[in-house]
Amino acid sequence: MLSILQCMNCGRQYPVDEVVYNCADCGGLLDVSHDLNALRKIVSRELFDQRLGSLERPYNSGVWRYKELVYPDVDPDMIVSRPEGNTNLYQTSKLAHWAGVETLYLKHEGENPTGSFKDRGMTGGLTQAKVLGMTRVACASTGNTSASLAAYAALGGLEGIVFFQNKQIALGKLSQAIAYGATCVQIAADFDRNLELVREVGAALGIYVLNSVNPFRLEGQKSIMIELIQQLRWQVPDWIVCPGGNLGNSSAFGKALRELYELGLIDRIPRLAIIQAEGANPLFRAFQKEFEDYQPIHAETIATAIKIGNPVNYPKAVRSIEWTNGVVEQVTDQEIMDAKALIDAQGIGCEPASGCSLAGVRKLVNDGIIKPHETVVGILTGHLLKDPDATIAYHRDQLDSIKAHYPNHIHEVAPSVDEIARILSNGGEHELIR
Question: Is residue 429 predicted with pLDDT exceeding 50?
């Protein structure tokens, strides 16, 4: 076997065919640990480049193109894939100028099948559920995970179960979970309590848990890093900037970069910047104290995808920051929505949480941490249509405590050519970035 489960704290190992999420000895989080010495003889840039554009499963997936780095021993017939990945890398001079850098790319994970990066993790998690012979899978969710789990469970022939909090759920996400046939349970508790509940229910009823505490989820999410570096023709950027919620992505990114470096596929490790919403910032607070004190908080932010006050992957995110000489920053809801409006106005579009990436780049440049000449890749985690209500409310200037600095007003006129002409003569292509 080329892979085992290994505790990140004490090193205890478990076989990959055991249902386990935390170490039985110390409670530590588990990694899917690959035999890099063996893989060094197998993987290469050329191997992955040859698979680009493949029409054959599983290599038509932007996750399973890198199968050897995700789950090398799995039988391809067991893989549950839509396929996912193969998301675009955008470069716009206007956003780069606004953020204060010469070269800025945005990798849009909202282009995955259910509209978020969660599909990359879910193909790994559902595949492992099939390998283990599970019949039911479950998650707690602020929205995106539930949509992805519901879709992949249906595709794989398993029952999907999702736990939501009973307020502040983006309807675009809830509608997906319902449409894909999952059993949806709304609970009078926040995400952090729902995560505790889903783990308790999973243990009691033999249901496989697919939140990001599941290490096979994070293996799929590693492919975001591998793919973006391949898209840059294996040239490593200076910075990777991403939103931080439950910290699964940032945990996966650090692991991917370290493995790529140890395998010789990249010649240096870029720095990682994790950006949290000011109202959901436990990692940022701990970073300010050099990670010597961590305290969960009650989370409040318009960016529902990252409204998490006690992220389960906190230890792995800290490890990623240490491995990459990274930083953690916070941005306000105002900064998030302004950055989102500018991304949207470039024809790219994203959900509110993704605005953290662009807002974070600008803030880090202003603070002198990111230098203007450095190459930056920001991660957009979700699709614009995940939360259309927030978008419309912003442009109508109807969000509490948030001012629409870059509004695109809706014009209301009488059914008259003259009236329409008046609007159009004053409009044209207006400049949202100023």
Answer: no
